[in-house]
Amino acid sequence: MYTLYGGKFTRALMTEMVFAELGVPYELIAVDTMNAEHRSEAFLKINPAGWVPALKTPEGAVLYETPAINLYLAERHGLGELVPALDDPRRGLFLSSLFYLTDELEPALKRYFFPHRYGVRDTDEGEIRQLSLKAVCACLEVIDGRLKESGPYHLGDQFSLADLTLSFWIRCLLDKGAVSEFRAVLECVDLVRNRPLLRRLFANHDESMKAYAELDADGQRPGGRQ
Amino acid sequence: MYRLFYAPKSASMGVRVLLEEIGAQYELIETSVDMNKSRPVEQLALNPNGWIPVLIWEEGSMYECAAITVFLCDRHSEAGLAPVADDPTRPLYLQTLVYFSNSVQNAFQLTYYPDRFVDHPQDEPSARQRGNRRLGETWRVVNDQIGEQQWTLGERFSAADIYLFMLTTWFRPQMGHPALEEFPGVKRIADAVMKRASVQMVYQEWIANPEY
């Protein structure tokens, strides 16, 4: 049995979506990151890096980095479905799409949510957030162009982990208006969040982001100072 | 036959080392990472943001260095450069590549391209300073993870070590980056990777002059 360590406002929800699609059972253990439980002695024994989400495999290995956790699970339990098989000619396109989201879109979003980690002075934060949204839109423009050409999913007719990842992040944006022009992206997201196995988790996601927006408007930073 | 859009100092060098290690036939297509220089049309059609590496082969094309690494090592599993799907070190392999390409590479970007992170030139030193701090934080994580292990994933050399080496060639202490010596486990592995014939060939210029 897998154990997923997560908590409020963490990307563990994205991994839960992967589990749901794969139909693989798991145990979820909530870690209270709002009160720094992820830096507690007890949790550091589980994941010495002090990060959530973390996944303990049935073999006892512990891994972190959500995109790696998701790719690992999808390759192990959903090869040929959630990810293309090793000999599928679309595998290159799939990996590129996934890592583009991981290495370009996600860091831009990280700056949007945690601007205080990227400036030295507090006064930098507004500017960093504004510019990060610009970077997010630049990424989405590239993705939107590709989806327009050969959508509705990253792999054409075939839903994959890349679409799930994109949809999770798009639904995170507090300023939803900022992405309204990316029609092909939004169409993909709509298809994904209405998948029968994902509908409930995306509803949880929306609730969670609403709560986050309230904290954010209040000037609180749920991500904490790193 | 692979074709690789290629420019010195960029992440395309790491992909070239992989192709050498695999023993694959490939051709380099010259391009640039300079924002003021134009790119081949074919490259932009595949990756509109103009970044490399971009790799082309008979059945397709790809971008993103970590993605290409996973793809090539799986496609040429006989080269033994990465743990295959059911290997117990596969989780650590994927985790390491994600951490390198996401956290570490973004810290480098903050210092090399501060203008992407702040709007006003007067704020760039702040972003750069934060990038330098972030470089220290991320490389400490990598160094702690390596500990006394011979290689990044443990006992076996892998593509993760090549990726690690590539990243270390981007250290510039005169830019305020931490020194590689601060991360002895990382340095030990980078030194070992540098001895490989593939790396000696691809990184010849850097080895002769790390400030090239």
Give me some keywords for this one.
heterodimer, A: 226 residues, alpha+beta, four-stranded mixed β-sheet, 52% helix, B: 212 residues, 9 helices, 4 strands
Task: Give me the secondary-structure topology.
The complex is a heterodimer of chains A (226) and B (212).
Chain A: E1 2-6, H1 12-22, E2 26-30, H2 41-46, E3 54-56, E4 62-64, H3 66-77, H4 91-113, H5 125-150, H6 161-170, H7 183-193, H8 199-217
Helix pairs in contact in A: 1-3, 4-5, 4-6, 5-7, 6-7
Chain B: E1 2-6, H1 12-22, E2 26-30, H2 41-46, E3 54-57, E4 60-63, H3 65-75, H4 90-112, H5 124-146, H6 159-168, H7 184-194, H8 197-202, H9 204-208
Parallel strand pairs in B: 1-2
Antiparallel strand pairs in B: 1-3, 3-4
Helix pairs in contact in B: 1-3, 1-6, 4-5, 4-6, 6-7
Give a description of the structure.
The complex is a heterodimer of chains A (226) and B (212). Chain A is of the alpha+beta class and 226 residues long. Chain A is built from eight helices and four strands; from the N terminus they run βαβαββαααααα. Chain A has helices at residues 12-22, 41-46, 66-77, 91-113, 125-150, 161-170, 183-193, 199-217, and strands at residues 2-6, 26-30, 54-56, 62-64. In chain A, helix 1 (12-22) links the parallel strand 1 (2-6) and strand 2. In chain A, helix 5 packs across helix 7 (183-193). The longest helix of chain A has 26 residues, at 125-150. The relative contact order of chain A is 0.12. Chain B has 212 residues and is α+β, with helices and mostly antiparallel strands. Chain B is 50% helix and 8% strand. Chain B has nine helices and four strands, in the order βαβαββααααααα. Chain B has a four-stranded mixed β-sheet with strand order 2-1-3-4, covered by helices on one side. In chain B, strand 1, helix 1 and strand 2 (26-30) form a beta-alpha-beta unit. The radius of gyration of chain B is 17 Å and the shape is globular. The two termini of chain B are 30 Å apart. In chain B, 45% of the residues are buried. At the A-B interface, helix 3, helix 4 and helix 5 of A face strand 4, helix 3, helix 4 and helix 5 of B.
